[in-house]
From TrEMBL:
Its main location: membrane. It comes from Hemiselmis andersenii. This is EF-hand domain-containing protein. The chain crosses the membrane at residues 231-254, 274-295, 307-333, 353-382, 431-455. Pfam families: Ion_trans. It is a multi-pass membrane protein. Residues 503-538 form the EF-hand domain. The lineage of its organism: Eukaryota, Cryptophyceae, Cryptomonadales, Hemiselmidaceae, Hemiselmis. InterPro entries: EF-hand-dom_pair, EF_Hand_1_Ca_BS, EF_hand_dom, Ion_trans_dom, VGCC_Ca_Na, Volt_channel_dom_sf. The keyword Cytoplasm does not apply.
Amino acid sequence: MSEVLGSLEVERSFQRSSSIKKGHALDLTITSLNRSLSRRPRVVVDYKEDDGHRYDEFKNSKDPDAVQSIKNHLESRLYKSLTKSHVDINAMHGGFDQSGGYIPPIMIPLPLDLSIKSSTILMRIEGKYFPAWICMTPDTICFARGGDVRTMTDYVPLYEVKQIMSLGGEAWSIETVEGGINSGRTFELKSIGEFEDSSTQWMVDIEQQRMKDAEDAANPVRKTRRRIKELYTSATSQAVISALILGNFLAVVVDSQCRPDKPGSKFAYMSAPLYALDVFFIIIFAAELVFNALGHSSARAFLSNPWCVFDILVVAASFVALCTVTIQGANAFRSIRAIRVLRLMVKMKQLRHIVQAVFTSFVPSLQAMFVCVIAMAVFAVFGVQFFGTRTPDFATFLRAFWSLFKVMAFQDWTDDLPLLQPPDYEVDQTVLVYIGLFVILIMWILLNVVVAVLLDRYVVAHQRETHRRAIKLMHIANVRNCTQFKLEILMTAISTLFDTEEEFKNGIARLFFLLDNNESGYLSFQEMQAGFRKLLCEPTIELEFADFQEVTNNGRLLDARGTLSFESFDRMMRRALKLRHTKHITDLLHVRRQCMGKELPIVLHTIRHMLLFQNNEGTHRRAEKRLENLSRRMKKLASAVVGSGRGVGNPRRFDSPPCNPQAG
């Protein structure tokens, strides 16, 4: 045991240190938490209006600090400020969680279903104990301050754990590294459980999991896979592979043109070089397929990509063609080599988008073609009835259908049913009506409907892909704009996580609860900076003091101590959200103007005008109201002064000239 506890002083490995310095570790942690949230079922915890029963485990503890922690939490300024603002504490822990699983929320519950171990614990903040939950996942230590598991207030990645120390008794601490998510914060904790939930057992379990996580991170196989994936997905590698595919296709074209394997061919000398070139391309493509598979994290991830499966089929078909080259009558397998050029669709994004658009429009086109086939079948039945005894081309249904198909393919009408009957060359009315209706209904209308449906669905799919890329570019632009307005990331995230005013208020209260780590009821710049860094936003919000001044309206929302109360924080978030919507509408007006009608820009400009001048109009109305109130009060004061002067017997009126003090 002493050796294990002695290892608690060991610093994290050099690889972890370099990853934190490069800034990759934080992004990996947030991405991992978001993926875990999307995979696992939602944790539904419903409490009653009485908050007392959620602290039963703390009340039943033999430690007196556990009971005192409940009192400290319920009597904290944070709890009082939220209840004073009429915030439903029970509903607060579901704030900004209205995404329904489609958009990752910025605040998540404690991941109990992913945890290796969890228990209640006491968290010491500024000399006071507060109730909390702790759970350990394979790569993170998570906390829920306040004792409600629906809001994870803090988390410490295992690679950021610098030191674990015993503070005597059941008290212990977790010290984090500088420059990480928690900026070197030390978590002072106290275990209130027994046996496996004791402080000693918690420290041992965390250290063991920490060592295991370090070993997994230093796994050379994972590093090699990451490097292979980076090399394979680089633009240079993809360009080389595309050039090889085109070269292989040109070799197949030359082989088909010269036919060196044909007996007596004058190009017989090219047979051996072309065969060697074919073997070379097959080996290269097989190696490229293996290289691509090694770059994926697992075989399941590789096979879940349909383009990778297409690569496997093409390479397998190439090997079949190579093995059957000496078999008599196996020329059909050799023709498989020509489909290798289709692998360009995997390598070139533009071709891939076109193919995806064609496949998207395939099903609606089949529906229109089905209507066309039914109409042709009806004409074939009528043809059998009208012309079955006059020509063998309409003797049966299949013959009649084939004859009509040839007409639809712009071939000649059957010679046994001429439109002009010899010897007088009179017009056959039955044939005329039959052919006329078939041409008008099938060839002029239904075939054009099939083509129109195909083009319409293709255009819709292409526009959808174009809009998706435009939105992606706009998102990249928003991320770049975060250097000017750091809360743009947060505003973008929360703008889709609420539907009503009540949900927005609960979300703001939950965010304030998460940021106020000392439960003082006020937020300082340091608390906001550290708290925003812990939100599950990509990229991470790195708040600077200049940004803090901007979002607080140059400090006008701050009190004398430079902090924000809950009411001021609510006004700050509403102001920032309004600014974000205004900027977003402005950006939207510049995205693909050619795809918009004339009405949409007018509507967007109107909404933008309302957002811009709503606050100014409200300010003018409030100023006018204040002037009216001030004028009314001045009149009352003047009347009171005049009445007071008359009451003491002063005959001088309020508007009479003052008397000369030197006279008399």
